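Exam revision sheet. Question 4 asks you to relate a sequence to its structure. Input first:
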Amino acid sequence: MKTLITLILLALSTTALAKQGVAILKFTAKGDAGYSMEHLNLYVFDNRFSSSASNEAAVMPIDMENGAGTLEVPIKNGFNYCSLYYRVKDSSGMAPPMNSKGFPRDLPFVLLEGDTLTVDFTYAPHPLGYTVSVNAALGGSNTDFYSFQLADPSRQEILDEFILYNHGKDILQQHAQIYGKATDQVKKAIEVIDGASKNWKVDDRIVEILKVDEISQYFNIFSRLFTVKTIHRPKDVLQAAKIASQMDLMPCLKGVPDSVLSSSYHFAVNLYKYMSEISRLGAQTGAGSASLATDKEVRKELYANIKQLDLPYFRSKLLWHWYLFGSNLAEDVEQDRSYLQQVLMEPYRSFMLDRELSVDYIFADMNGEPVRLSDFKGKLVLIDFWFTGCSGCMQINPVVRKAEKEIMESADGEVVFLSVSVDMDPAVFKGSVAGGKYTTEHSVNLNTGGVGRYHQFLKDHDVFSYPTLVLLDRNGKPVKGALPEIRADYEGFLDKVRSNL
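Answer key, structure tokens:
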């Protein structure tokens, strides 16, 4: 009997350990009879920055039958980053602009194992007339924690105070003033999190992750303020470099464990932006005041800076990103092959040095039928990613048309042109193709199969802005070096395509 009881307890224990944790989301939606919830999808991210194939997001639609729906969300290792996408339609079936409060669309947030989060949407006509107001009230087992992430005004007030400046002043004086108080602002943001976390039902690691997320926003602001769009004369860039050198944000992360940094949704992307801008300013210091530093000089500076990064986990990620999307300096990679072999983590090592990809990406055609990227193996593939309403996508279209015509004249059928929409609504996608403003007569028109910008190809290749053109070789792998921007360097773009035929 004792043996039997022991076996039963062991079986129960094994079952409990094997069962994956969950969180429960409960939704209601009500309000003006002229509106209804058209789309409500939860995106669950899985260790977003751990590898080139890790930006995986599970798309979980919520069925809002009679204005209510419940979703059981699998949670790994205690928590997952999620984001919520929703859209309201009016009585005519159109989706008007939304003024959202309480639960911003597409804003990543941490969802904890064992929590129940209730979201009560209400919608009504906005005073402007053509906009719908969508308000979300949060409740559940850990309301304070989720309200802080999604709707706490104090966090944004600190950021606003950090970036607020007088437009009448000289832009560089503004930067000097802003970055003179950067450290104080970061400390203030951390103090707010420390104070708020006293009411949360979370462990210390989650609190530290949110702190890193918060700090990384300042990295992002740095890259946005010191930009070519606001500082475009060599002497101004040199002055900006001097100002920037006085404000190093990296010490803000001193003592933060790699396990926390690698779990932060925002950190890797914002670190790359920050280092890119630091490198641009540094390259200008080397170039002097006669002319702006060239893209090649900036990329060379960025490569050197990433190599010196004392964060092995992110050094691999950033070197990979630089190689795939920011570099025409493939020769540097060849020269540094032995060094990279030692410092790169998998799968970056095999991807960057051996250029192997095992994923066969699947898109959808106009009829919703699957189309595999491997279907085009043996030919050069030029992909144009776009979405409906993207002004840049429409502006680039005539240039793409012209390039396709010239390439076809010399390619003898060896190049395939794919026009891939990230629109989530098939009807919107088909309407835009029919309108002819985004695609060309020579393109194979595809879409991401209803998952929008969370398609695996986009995540694996860090495609996060549109339009984006990607060139794949005959084995379905990105060609070495960056693809020149088609509008800025049209001939260089054509030469890059032709050199890979």
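Marking note for examiners. Residues 343 and 383 are 31 Å apart (CA to CA).
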